[in-house]
Amino acid sequence: MVAKLTNAQIAWRAAQDLPDGAYVNLGIGFPEMIATFKPEGREVTYHTENGILDFGEAPPAGEEDWDLINAGKKAVTANPGASFFHHADSFAMVRGGHLDVAVLGAYEVAQTGDLANWSTGPGSVPAVGGAMDLVHGAKQVWVVTDHVTKKGEPKLLEKCRLPLTGVGCVTTVYTSLAVIDIVDRRFVVREKLPSMSLEDLQAVTGAPLAVGATVGDLIVPEL
Questions:
Q1: Is 49 a catalytic residue?
Q2: Among residues 82, 74, 87, which one has the least CA distance to residue 129?
Q3: Among residues 206, 146, 195, which one has the least CA distance to residue 11?
Q4: Could you say which DSSP state residue 35 is in?
Q5: Tens of pLDDT along 112-133?
Q6: How far apart are CA 176 and CA 143, in angstroms?
Q7: Which of 32, 43, 49, 222 is catalytic?
Q8: Is 113 helix (H, G, I), strand (E, B) or coil?
Q9: What backbone torsions phi and psi does residue 206 show, to the nearest 5 degrees?
Q10: Buried-exposed string 97-134: b where 16+ CB fall within 10 A, e elsewhere
């Protein structure tokens, strides 16, 4: 296996695609890192399902206000003009189709766009939670993930084996090896690490990979 991207580098790459003026929900955990890498000069408004619109970066250590947290219970700052609202109003925003992008982690993604990101079986998280609202309320659903499991098994599959979060919802997957769009129920490679051949990428992917006219190099900074 070639050297793969770190979580920070995956988050950086996903952040570069956020549209100017977008309203974006970042899932708990790994996806929250994207807020650190907002491209200079681009206006992106972040939403958190516990009731903040337009939160900013994490405060310096020791300066946290623990009444101001995101859905993952991490301290955030409020940008000028930020608003605060009831949890129910926050989910009304999600379900009403007001989010442009939701970014989530994943255990498995199917070539059809199905997502499994909440349970690995008995003894794991007991319920799907707000992710099921996000994946069907947002206009686009992006996934950030390692390309393979800790055991080296593919996370991108023909069909998910774990309980689903949503059906046909994922539009793009940013992995440690590639950027892959889901188009017409197929994985289409947009970018890959330049040190990796398409054959090598296919070998660690559990479904056929398609390519468009060109496949770009996945280039990220050292972070």
A1: yes
A2: 87
A3: 146
A4: G
A5: 999 999 988 777 777 788 899 9
A6: 11
A7: 49
A8: coil
A9: -90, 20
A10: eebbbbbbbbbbbbbbbbbbbbbeeeeeeeebebbbbb
Q: What are phi and psi of 183, to 5 degrees?
A: -130, 125
Mean pLDDT, residues 145-171 = 96
Using only C-alpha atoms, what is the Rg of the chain? 17
Sign of CA dihedral 33, 193, 109, 142: positive
CA-to-CA separations, 160 to 64, 95, 109, 139, 202, in angstroms, rounded: 39, 24, 6, 22, 17
One-letter amino acid of 220: V
Q: What are the tens digits of pLDDT across the range 182-194?
A: 999 999 999 999 9
Residue-wise pLDDT for 151-162, tens only, equals 999 999 999 999
Integer Cα distance of 199 and 196 in angstroms: 8
